[in-house]
Amino acid sequence: MIHVGLNHFLVVSTILFSLGILGIVSRKNAVMVLMGIELILNSANINFIAFAKFGNFGFQGQIMALFVIILAAAEAAIALAIVLNIYKTFSTVNVDEIDTLKD
After folding, report:
1. Does some domain include residue 13?
2. Domain for residue 50, yes or no?
């Protein structure tokens, strides 16, 4: 029988964080950059929950994860509104092609 310990959660969190950083750095599409940010926030949630379980911190990890989920929802709503406004103005969502900021 396999015992899932803290190291397993940390490995999964590290993989998610690395994929999020890779998505932010390598993608030119603004929506894909936002998905990379969401992966990073989810890796932080895994860490909060894992350390709360294995570190005997009570509900502090779950409360912090709840705040991160709220932050991610607010970030997604605001960022998608910005992306839609950029698409309306520039007719593209590629980050490299948006080089001027005008009214």
Report:
1. no
2. yes
SS3 content of the chain, % helix, strand, coil (to 5): 80, 0, 20
Angle between helices 60-90 and 30-54 (to 10 degrees): 180
Instruction: Give the per-residue pLDDT at 61.
Output: 87
Gap between the terminal Cα atoms of the chain: 62
Report residues of the chain scoring pLDDT below 50.
none
Total domains in the fold of the chain:
1
SS3 27: coil
- Domain-located, residue 83: yes
Residue 35 lies in a domain: yes
At 69 the pLDDT is: 93
